[in-house]
Amino acid sequence: MYLSPFDAPPHIVIKYIMTSDLIFKTNRTISSAFIDSSVRLGIAQAILLVQDNLTECFGAMGCDGVVYREKLNAFWVFTKTRVHFIRRPNWREKITASTFPVNNAGMRTHINTIFTDSDGKTLLTANQEACVLSLENHRPLRLTTLPYPTENFPAPVFEEPFEKFPKIILDEHFVYEQKIRSQHIDMSHHMNNIEYIKLALNVFDDAFLQKNEVKDLEVHYTGESTEGQNLAIFRHTEGNATFIAIQESDRCVFEMKIQF
Predict the structure, then answer these.
(1) Residue 18's pLDDT band (boundaries 50, 70, 90)?
(2) Where are the extended beta strands (E) located within the chain?
(3) Pick from 162, 177, 178, 169: which is nearest to 236 by CA?
(4) pLDDT digits over 160-185, tens only?
(5) d(Cα 86, Cα 232) in Å, to the nearest integer?
(6) Which of 19-28, 134-143, 230-239 has the lowest average pLDDT?
(7) How far from 161 is each of 39, 94, 117, 208, 256, CA to CA, in Å?
(8) 197-217 confidence digits (pLDDT tens)
């Protein structure tokens, strides 16, 4: 069933329900590609699945990156993501993923996602912040001038604000260095968002991640990096929160806060 306020691009074929209230729903099975060593949906893979559902939601509304690039010479940039974990689903478990925009603030938008299990119980909730840039000059474009919803948004499922992180790039916080390789690169020829999260999670060993269950995670994408550059990963703990920053040269390109 397709009931979007916009015409779907003819080349997009997805099994989904796009309701008249802008809520995009898909039924998914947690495959082996999305699990970690706990045999459950991995932390980074959860963000990937949230991002993937958002991409399909935008495709259903006729405003995804393909349409914007081909017709409007523009592209989406996702600047922040915050996720609250209640339970990570198991391998082969069936879930429902629902994604929907909750506002149009002119220069940026927020998009919520909720995963539920077969009994309708919430597994995680997420909020993502995004804006659109011109391919010509990389300047932000007003969403009200683009094919994107402007009203009748569903009620949000994630209302906590994004946080401002402390600056932690100090010598005593340095953990390791990683050179960006070809398989870290995405369609824009920059470091893929999920690859940053994987690098950040590498500050913990597997034994720690097995014993400690993630509760909240927030990431900020603060810069771009490309193949061949070297990234330095820093870690600092304050109370029950761990802050991770990734720096390229003298630029901070990624920040993360995680709580277990």
Answers:
(1) low
(2) 17-18, 24-29, 74-85, 94-101, 109-116, 122-134, 140-141, 174-179, 216-221, 230-238, 241-248, 251-259
(3) 169
(4) 999 999 999 889 999 999 999 999 99
(5) 31
(6) 19-28
(7) 31, 30, 26, 28, 15
(8) 999 999 999 999 999 999 999
The band of 188, judged by pLDDT with boundaries at 50, 70 and 90, is confident
Helix (H, G, I), strand (E, B) or coil at 260: coil
Cα–Cα distances in angstroms (integers) from residue 126 to residues 25, 35, 164, 168, 212, in the given order: 15, 19, 17, 25, 20
Task: For residues 88 and 168, give the distance between their C-alpha atoms in angstroms, rounded to a whole number.
Answer: 29
Helices (H), the chain: 43-60, 65-72, 193-201, 206-211
Q: What single-letter amino acid sits at 75?
A: F
Contact between residue 79 and residue 129 where contact means Cβ atoms under 8 Å apart: yes
Structure tokens at 52: 């993937």
Is pTM beyond 0.85 here? Answer: yes
Residue 117 in contact with residue 89, Cβ under 8 Å? yes
Residue 214 contacts residue 260 (beta carbons within 8 Å): yes
How distant, in Å, are the alpha carbons of 32, 98, 213, 225 from that of 216? 23, 19, 10, 26
